[in-house]
Input
Amino acid sequence: MKNSIMMLSAALMLGGVAHAQKVAFEEYNLDNGMHVILHNDPSAPVVITSVMYHVGSKDERPDRTGFAHFFEHLLFEGTQNIKRGEWMKIVTANGGVNNANTSDDRTYYYEVFPSNNLELGLWMESERLMHPIINKIGVETQNEVVKEEKRMRYDNQPYGNILPEVKKNMFKNHPYRWTTIGSMKDLDAATLEEFQAFNKKFYTPNNAVLVVAGDFDKTKAKEWIQKYFGPIPRGEEVKKQTFTEEPITQTIRSTYEDPNIQIPMIVASYRTPSMKTRDARVLDLISSYLSDGKSSKLYKKIVDDKKMALQIGAVGFSQEDYGTYILYGLPMAPNTSADILKEMDEEIVKIQTDLISEKDYQKLQNKFDNNFVNANASVEGIAENLASYYLLYGDVNLINTEIDIYHSITREEIREVAKKYLNPNQRLILDYIPSPKSQN
Output
């Protein structure tokens, strides 16, 4: 009884925090089509200016992969009014930090400044959009930077090529089949004119959302937004191409040899629906139940209790068009990859056959309540979420209401969705093994 009361209290507390944390925002459009979202939070004297562009690696040509990620680097090179090499200096000299990141679906840039530097942040982001300098020296410099990043993150990183191998096997038609970092061969072959054309096509105000979040005066912010972004010409509408994948109806089997590892890894990967769907959210719960943390079903059974694996885990990639759910395990001798896969499959069959317990269901809900609170715990997190919910989901208010979707998911739905997507004939089995060279 005491435990039940404590669980109920925890749930009510989290629910109260989630309810109290409602994110207030205002949104509107500039005449050039740029969408603007403002979120005022005076609790700390900082302000973030961020711009998310609806361009990612899926918008590239198959023979020119890596462009979207390359621009994440290239557009820090300088503008007509910010000399080459001065961008970072201006930011740090004014007490700020900045960064950018790219996915298959979008590219995101941001600066965090003390509140009194909002105008500076807006000016810098407008410069990136209106006056970028894309020239030979910038392209050559960033080409070397990206090559080094690829060596560190993929080529020389133990297990670094799991994702590239999964993507190319899971997708045959969709551009998700290549990695965000792309091919160095493609980047080397590209002309300066191709980089400039990519910028002209995708870096337009009507293909972007601007978010200002933090401690600022709304009236002044709107004046500055109009001053710096209003004059930027509208670009041609970007027509998004639709790519459809045929369902996976029989197990795909593949092997990859990695010279950087000594222990093999078994990978089971399932294609999942768009992150905008209800089923994708149900799969989020299933993923957490199976493999999120040391108390998850797979970790407790295979690593803790049976001591069959050194590690068990999962990576879920929720994306705009499709998603991918990747389970992986490192067998502990004398157990094999096949033994680990058998144990994984047994737990999946249990979900497909029986309802998860009420206790486990409540634990999942509590965990997702906590995730919801943490996702909006900082001004940086709120800014990125506001941009993502607008650009990728088409509903900014999901920042407040998506948790209600998770709350409405039933145990019966969890069972049915597991039956729908997590079957042996619908997946890739990748044997990720040491290369013979790594054994010498």
About this structure: Confidence is low (pLDDT under 50) at residues 1-20.
